[in-house]
Specification:
2 copies of one chain form a homodimer.
Chain A: H1 7-15, H2 19-27, H3 31-40, H4 43-52, H5 55-63, H6 67-76, H7 79-88, H8 91-100, H9 103-111, H10 115-125, H11 132-135, E1 141-144, H12 149-159, E2 168-172, E3 178-183, H13 184-188, H14 196-199, E4 207-208, H15 213-223, E5 227-231, E6 237-242, H16 243-261, H17 276-302, H18 305-310, H19 318-341, H20 350-379, H21 384-414, H22 424-446
Parallel strand pairs in A: 1-2, 4-5
Antiparallel strand pairs in A: 2-3, 5-6
Chain lengths: 449, 449
């Protein structure tokens, strides 16, 4: 990666109050890097540095701050400075910010916005969490049917400054119903006198305000889009979602799946910024549920006390059997859960997945059992029946674990539950119980316990 | 999502050979949907339908086929038809395709390309797998220093047709050294007579051809980019990576992490298209490694045979203890691995993570142990010392599992190993051994076994 930024040198300029040079360097930097730099400073210097930023840049940098920094900065600037920033923010960034701030700060921000901005922000704050409405922005370029290409280009040149993206323009009628889409590429490659009606694409990929943001992000991945228009239930254009926000959603949704699949309640903030109590709370619930299931497994095991009292050696294979069962099951469930998350597997594939998992698990089970049998036969000569018991159990456990692991996530989806909870921890607990029953049932027969 | 496509109606048109109407409908559809539709047809009808596509659209649809379909279609069209498609494909799509096809088919494709295209494709095929070079495309818009805004817009209007994206233009000198970046938005918002030199941004975010594609994708997420220029070691512009390809990389890298974290070798293809033998092969290696570690745990357990022969009740708590330890550890390792994947946690946070995990695990451990103690004291009255043994072990296991789970992925990164392999399965196996040793050591003391 090129152009590494020397934060130390910049901090030196802050410390020596060389604000003019600092301002010149910051003005040439990317807003993401400026935000990172300001957040790396001690708080009292952060505000001073933020204030040196040229007007146009301040809001862009502000949008890239964490909510803690935003709150701090808001608290240390004047109402007038705040008003400028609020007007310059894109509405989606303003809404993201307000959703995280305490009520008193939100009040002060809204008080300093113009009535139009305030009305728009309030409208956007109404959309449900995780909906398309909650991630869209109102800064898009709209065109009218009767424009020519030349008119459209002039319109963009006149209004483009405030627009989050100018590259896809939306053609609306007088009631704001979305009728077509024109890209700037289409405009540039058409002759000036051509009419917008002629070149617009009427096969529009759009979403409604209440659509799940995860589905919106999937549209971007599927169709390689730069932005998607958002319409209300009457087909009126109310906003757009841009690809950078879709990228953030994809990243967040993947993180949530990782968390759910490791038996946690997804957290709102990055790990290092989440408090100890919140982290503990997010983890305890599932650990308790799984611990109680583990106790059930334990009581199943209790039914075979006579067996392992008679032959304690059997106990030493329990960790290997249950771990392998858990691992085998979680391999299958992970592939299927992820396959559904990226739309490669759907509920209609239930039987195909099951049949595939049965075949794979037979192959895997045969290899693992054979290795195990040989190892035990060598380690415990004369105990071939024990070796056979363990090998048979291992085979049955692997087949069962993989089949259950493959189909449970699909069944979860069928009953409208979240497939991600059918991941390693739950599968492991389910498979543990089964594999112990199989183990001791086989042991009782083969070893006459 | 709007405009759902009626595949049945389209297939009816194929079956009744109503190719004219079919062609008209397809011409208005998105290339992704057309590709999905053609792939849903029986193979012999797929080629016929593909041939009805208008010339400009055929290559776009072709780029969206799976490699199996591409191979089939190549095998059933003429050399002349193939030549047209190869020339129309963007070079990154052509390279993606050739990397998947058998050598004989690659040969036929290259034979039908023009010498220029062939040379470009051959050059691109040289870049290492997973490098920026392997995902870049050569179709970008380059501008020269001495152009005015008006010249630049004219240049784009003349050459834009073949360009994968026209929205970011790259300013190069006569040796093709990259000197600046101009967006179409910059051009549109400047006056015609302004010079490119004046408005170009010289703080360029660029990558080199050998840079890891995952790092390239992270740049897009960090800076909200639409494209990134790729330069060789002398700073000459050789290609660009576009955001749609970065989105694909992010999705693939997340999938690989899911697979590695569930103890699998990542697969190249989607689950449903991967053969049974490949799936089995990807899973067996790690299961074998973990099974052998499980045996080691088993032999540790063997040292305490006397203890559980004397008190078989102790055995029934083993699944609960090891499962809870595994789950507690995988919660921590998952958060840290994912945190590092999205650059929220770095190796310098080792001590911060450790300290956080210790505090979280003490909280979690106290709650779980207390619940457990109460439950056991109620279920097994008179056996309070057993309840205490289990509760103390559970507490120690949770603290140990979370601390190990939190720091092992960071240590892996420090020694340049892949943090994702330090996920649930390995942590579980490590923690199992420790927790059993703790369990029986406490049991021997408290219960005088």
């Amino acid at each position: 990666m090129e152009n590494y930024i020397d934060f130390d040198k910049l901090e030196e300029l802050v410390n020596t109050r060389n604000y003019r040079e600092l301002r010149d360097i910051l003005a040439g930097m990317n807003e993401v890097d400026i935000a990172l730099f300001i957040e790396s400073l001690p708080v009292e210097k952060a505000t001073v540095t933020f204030r040196t930023l040229p007007k146009g840049l301040a809001a862009d940098v502000f949008a890239n701050f964490s909510s803690d920094t935003q709150e701090y900065i808001i608290g240390s600037i004047t109402d007038q400075e705040l008003a400028v920033i609020v007007e310059d923010l894109f509405v989606d960034d303003a809404v993201d910010m307000l959703e995280e701030l305490p009520a008193s700060v939100v009040k002060r921000v809204l008080k300093n916005a113009t009535p139009d901005t305030r009305a728009l922000i309030n409208q956007f704050l109404q959309y449900p969490e995780n909906s398309a409405g909650s991630i869209m922005t109102a800064e898009f370029t709209d065109l009218r049917h009767n424009m020519t290409v030349e008119d459209a280009i002039k319109h963009i040149r006149r209004t483009g400054e405030d627009r989050e993206t100018v590259y896809t323009c939306y053609v609306i009628d007088e009631r704001r119903i979305l009728d077509g889409v024109v890209t700037v590429k289409d405009l540039l490659l058409s002759s000036d006198e051509n009419s917008i009606d002629n070149i617009m694409d009427t096969e529009i990929i759009s979403v409604t305000t209440l659509e799940d943001r995860e589905d919106v992000a999937k549209l971007f991945a599927k169709y390689d889009l730069l932005s998607v228009p958002v319409v209300d239930h009457e087909g009126r254009l109310v906003g757009i979602v841009t690809v950078d926000d879709a990228v953030d959603v994809m990243e967040q949704e993947a993180t949530e799946d990782f968390e759910k699949m490791a038996a946690m309640i997804p957290s709102e903030k990055p790990y290092l910024k989440t408090g100890v109590f919140t982290l503990a709370k997010n983890r305890i619930m599932w650990l308790l549920v799984l611990m109680i299931s583990g106790m059930i497994t334990g009581s199943i095991l209790g039914r075979y006390e006579a067996a392992f009292a008679a032959m304690p050696l059997l106990v030493t294979f329990i960790p290997m059997l249950t771990d392998t069962g858990g691992n085998a099951g979680s391999q299958s469930s992970t592939l299927v859960i992820r396959g559904m998350a990226v739309s490669e597997i759907s509920t209609k594939d239930l039987l195909a997945v099951m049949w595939k998992e049965i075949r794979v698990s037979v192959l895997v089970g045969v290899v693992l059992s054979a290795v195990n049998f040989v190892r035990l036969a060598v380690t415990y000569p004369g105990n071939e029946m024990v070796a056979l018991t363990v090998a048979l159990t291992l085979f049955a456990t692997v087949v069962l674990a993989k089949t259950i692991g493959g189909i449970l996530p699909i069944i979860a989806k069928l009953v409208k539950a979240d497939p991600a909870i059918m991941a390693a921890p739950l599968i492991t607990t389910v498979v543990d119980a089964f594999s112990l029953v199989i183990y001791f049932s086989i042991a009782e027969r083969l070893l006459h316990l």
